[in-house]
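thought: fold this chain, then report.
action: predict
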Amino acid sequence: MTTARAQDSAAGVGADGPTEPAQVAGRVPPRLSVPKASDVLADELRQRIFSGEFKEGEVLPVERVLSSDTGLSRGTVREALRALELEGLVHTRPGRAGGSFVRRPDTSTFERSLNILVGGQGVHFGALVEAREAIEPAAAGLAAKHRTDADLANLRAAADHMRDTVTQVHLFKEHNVTWHVAVVEATHNEIMQAYVGSLWKTISRGIDVATLYSPRTLQETLAAHERIFQAIEAGDQTRAYAAMAKHAVAYRDEISRHHQFGNQPA
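observation:
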């Protein structure tokens, strides 16, 4: 174990006081990376929200109190609160009865982050379709394992809405997304729900319904959904996985006939 005296010596402190630091030829001291004060405060508040110390719906201390307690400027406090709001962990209400109110993270938090990533990094549309094709079959398998009667009712209701709007393509598209989200909700797996649900909503915004949803495609979609539903209802994980995988491949092939999306931004 290094003694305090040895540590002082290494730091250039001798028995009679400070000494000149040793110069090491050819070496440059590494550049230190010091976090911003607002990031440190945001991280502390974030952890207190995650731990449950600040409960959902509770108002955080006002800027003046946070500034006084931490010794940071009100501008720094404001920047930290703004970062939490962008993450969806707080929402601000103006006025005398307003303030920064705590929100627990939900799937919309992930969806916002995914949209920022896709837009900010210029992620191409094909990457989203490939990700969906790789992950959604696993979600269908988990849905077959964990689905409840209420989940089956939600899937059936979404399928019925799709049939009822088969001549109204934009409504059909909305109900199609609802059906796929219902599949992932039936997994009762929060990570799957956040990821696949957000992925589907992002993909749907990049689809030209007028070219993709032909009468043939609409009927094929309904038939594929029925096969997936029957497998989920039966609790057959293998069949649900295979049926969703086939549906995802058909979806990708149909899109590729209408969109050259290899490097097209989503």
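thought: worth noting. The two ends are 56 Å apart (CA to CA).
final: tokens above.
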